[in-house]
Amino acid sequence: MPATTDSTSITPETTPVQKTKRSLWMVSVHVLIQVLFAVVALVLCLECMFALAGIGEQEYLRIDKEVGFAPMENKHVTWRKEGFSRTTFNSQGLPDRELSLSKPANTYRIAVIGDSFTEALQVDRTQNFCSLLEKKLNQESGGAQRFEVINGGCSAYNLGQMYYRLKNKVMPYQPDLVLVAMSVDTIKNFAHMQGGFAFANARPTFVIDDQGQLRFDYRIFDIWRLSPEGKRIKNTNWLRQYSHIWGVLGTIMGNLDSYKHDIISGKIWGWGTTQQALMTVQSSAKPGAAVVSESNDKAIAMPLPAPVQGPVINQTQELWPVAQAVLREMKKDCLAHDSKFVMVRLAGRPEVGYVNPQETEMFKGEASSSQTPYIDLSETFDKAKTDGKTLFYSVHLAPEGHQIVATELNRFLNSSNLLQK
């Protein structure tokens, strides 16, 4: 009987064309995998190299829905824009070492609130005036009492943001004494629509309402959040915090955005918000949060403020009532927490036009009328300049400048009996 063949078991031979297609597909997948591995390896290599060299570590600010922007917690920073330093912000976002919130026995805590002059990324942490002041106080104490000086500075903060930082980040450390360090043009930082810095318009501003109450005003901040720059920073927050490569790219993009001088067609003030976005926010601005009384939820009915323009002297006069109100609330809050309050006027640089004597007189007058201890470091710096010391980099304090601030603060605090509990 002839053998039969089961047709279902017969596999048709693969044609040359099919073999070629399959081979090309496998080669393509193989090449793609190799490319992906190569890209990943290159990225990891660059990240490691940049981390070792401290490159791409200058982006350290994040968006904060309450205060506009704040340093990233536990962020390591290598600073090269002016001076040089390597530092790590602590778990509270302060440019300081990690401290327990509970105050150790026999410890006198001094908190310093300020802007980039206090934050002092331009020098090593051991060289900033907060650390130097702490060292001097402990050396002179001889162990009879321990001193801790807490650095609460943050770059580009206005007095209102400093007040918020004091209440929410610094007061939990139970300071016995609070110094508010005010650099030149501190009052001007209350102005709306500022440029030259990626987060310049990410600040809440402040208004005094019809009842004379000081309030946060988030309308300008809301406009900024809708801008391309605001969205870029929000959407890339993880990369900005952890990627050195993105740190380089983000710094470049931030600089390009900050120094745009031409108004983009269909957009306002050259910082990336469309006129439609402005109208939307203006018509639906959220109520300002009360600074003094959180229970007052009355919406701000005032029109959206125009940019503050004109000479600095005019801006200082226009914005002074708000600055004065913030200083008084800051002092009131300190006294409520049994903390002494001191106003410190940091020195400017008259030789390069970085000076505002009108502002200095306003601070001095406010300190006198409110009976607040006050020290102006301008005269001391003027004398030191004649000795040929390098007190500043381009704008911020150099190590010798920090030494002078620490020395003068130490002298002032001791002579004013402010170090007694």
Question: How would you describe the overall organization of this protein?
Answer:
The chain is 42% helix and 13% strand. The chain has helices at residues 16-53, 116-119, 129-141, 159-170, 219-226, 228-235, 237-242, 244-258, 275-283, 312-336, 357-369, 378-385, 399-415; strands at residues 61-64, 68-71, 76-79, 85-88, 107-113, 146-151, 177-182, 205-208, 214-217, 267-268, 273-274, 340-345, 374-376. It has a five-stranded parallel β-sheet with strand order 6-5-7-12-13. It has a two-stranded antiparallel sheet with strand order 1-2. It has a two-stranded antiparallel ribbon with strand order 3-4. Strand 10 (267-268) and strand 11 (273-274) form a beta hairpin. Helix 4 packs parallel to helix 10. The longest helix is centred in the N-terminal third of the chain and has 38 residues, at 16-53. It is elongated, with a radius of gyration of 28 Å. It starts with 15 loop residues before the first helix and ends in a 6-residue tail after the last helix. 37% of the residues are buried. Mean pLDDT is 83; it is low at 261-290 and 292-309.
Please specify the SSE layout and strand pairing.
Elements: H1 16-53, E1 61-64, E2 68-71, E3 76-79, E4 85-88, E5 107-113, H2 116-119, H3 129-141, E6 146-151, H4 159-170, E7 177-182, E8 205-208, E9 214-217, H5 219-226, H6 228-235, H7 237-242, H8 244-258, E10 267-268, E11 273-274, H9 275-283, H10 312-336, E12 340-345, H11 357-369, E13 374-376, H12 378-385, H13 399-415
Parallel strand pairs: 5-6, 5-7, 7-12, 12-13
Antiparallel strand pairs: 1-2, 3-4, 8-9, 10-11
